[in-house]
Amino acid sequence: MSTASLETLDRVARPPGPFRGLDRWVLPTRLLGWTEEAPERYLLDVPFVPAMLLTCSAEDCRVIFTERDGALLFGEGLKRFAPHEAMFGHDAIASLDGEDHTRFRRHLTAAFHGEALKGYEQAIVSTTERAVGGWPRRRPVAFAELTRELARDVIVTVVFGVTDPGRARRLRSALDRLDRALNSLEMAGRLAAAILMRGRWAPYPRIKAIHREIEAVTREEIAERRAAPGADERPDCLARFLAAAEEPGDAVSDDEVIAALRVLVIAGWATTANTLAWMAERLARHPEALAACEADADGGPGRYLTATVQETLRLRPPVPVTLRYVARDFDLRGLHLPAGTLLATDIERMHLRPDVYEQPRRFRPERFLEQRPGTYTWIPFGGGVHRCIGAGFALTEARLIFATLLQEVTFAPERARGEPSSRRTLITAPGRRATVTLVPRP
């Protein structure tokens, strides 16, 4: 099919209203106002901002996620319309496309599957048990604040594997400063400026200084382990990465290991903390699902807890879209996308399609006991070669944390009405910080 015979962007639907769809980003709850008749594809075409095509078509997702020829760039998409370059650093973003990315995943994927995940379980449980013991009971608490600290401590213990008390304190302090910087109004303003400047970020010395501190801690940890025989057998991600660095041939370097840990910190911290917070917010308002989770936590196989994590990620995905930058003209099933367009799979709308999910706005974990999540219809972690490398870790972590804490406490809602979503950059969070009351279980 020639380019001339393809449908062009000028014929794609635009969102209604004076804000041309941008209100969806600032006010996520506006998503629920979209009717079932809204088109699968629509175009955000705002002055001074690159045109972005959003799609919630499963067939479009299949094409996007299976593209292998370099026409659709993941890292460049993040650079153009997300704060990831400032968050991760240029080196980490540069490794997200092309052969570097393929090689990177080949070496590090083993750290997030099979026996590796089983090896992390006890550390996740122990970290959770220590945290729950100090949580307040019988009064409303912002659960999102508790899960932020818990997810941070899991990163220190299970991802970095830091056991030296002084080094652990330095790492926690650096991570806290990083979290405040990434969630600041300054970051939101810098993101807006970078979008207008087509992905060119102004220097951000505060973030770079924090990354240098995290890198210093990591290099100290690496040096200590290499000086101690058997340290690479410890049950943490860093040990797995260092084992990959010792593989013969084209092994990963220490710099790549450090970049990988940086990505895991940022990609896996706020997203996991908010998923845990949303789980508590939803379960507190759905007593039957909460009772089923408690039964599963009391010696069950974990299937219902896993389904609850999956259902939470369906209704409240941490990020609303996954992005690609169109590096050269691309045919998306008969639609001509010119180079320079941003292409986004609309995760939020995909997960609310009534032809895919019966009663899509209802919180019902049982749906994932009845059928497996679809490759192109359940996409909280993206898809294809750029599917989140830590997806298995995130699912295991959330299931184990809730299995552990539900043995000690249960949840009561602060008020009957559920919490709205809020968003400062890209991550969707509970609007009232998942305020619930923790009640001791008998």
Structure description:
The chain has helices spanning 23-26, 58-66, 74-81, 84-88, 90-94, 98-108, 114-133, 143-159, 165-182, 185-196, 205-227, 237-245, 254-284, 287-297, 303-315, 347-350, 367-370, 391-405, and strands spanning 41-44, 52-55, 72-73, 140-142, 321-326, 330-332, 335-337, 342-346, 409-413, 421-423, 428-430, 435-440. By secondary structure, it is of the alpha+beta class. It has one domain (3-440): Cytochrome P450 (Cytochrome p450, Orthogonal Bundle), CATH 1.10.630.10. A 5-stranded mixed sheet has the order 1-2-8-5-3. Strands 4-12-9 form a 3-stranded antiparallel sheet. The protein has a two-stranded antiparallel ribbon with strand order 6-7. The model has no long low-confidence stretch (mean pLDDT 88).
Beta content comes to: 5-15%
**Structural class of the secondary elements?**
alpha+beta
Helix content: 40-55%
Rounded mean pLDDT score? 88
Count of discrete alpha- or pi-helical segments spanning 4 or more residues:
18
Which stretches of 5+ consecutive residues score pLDDT under 50? none
Secondary-structure element series: HEEHEHHHHHEHHHHHHHHEEEEHHHEEEE
CA-based gyration radius = 22 Å
Which class in CATH terms? Mainly Alpha
CATH fold topology: Cytochrome p450
Largest sheet: 5 strands, mixed
Outline: globular
Provide the number of structural domains.
1
- Report, as a whole number of angstroms, the end-to-end distance: 67 Å
CATH architecture classification = Orthogonal Bundle
What is the oligomer described by this structure?
single chain
The tally of beta strands, per DSSP, is 12
Find the CATH superfamily: Cytochrome P450
**Strands in their spatial order, largest beta sheet:** 1-2-8-5-3
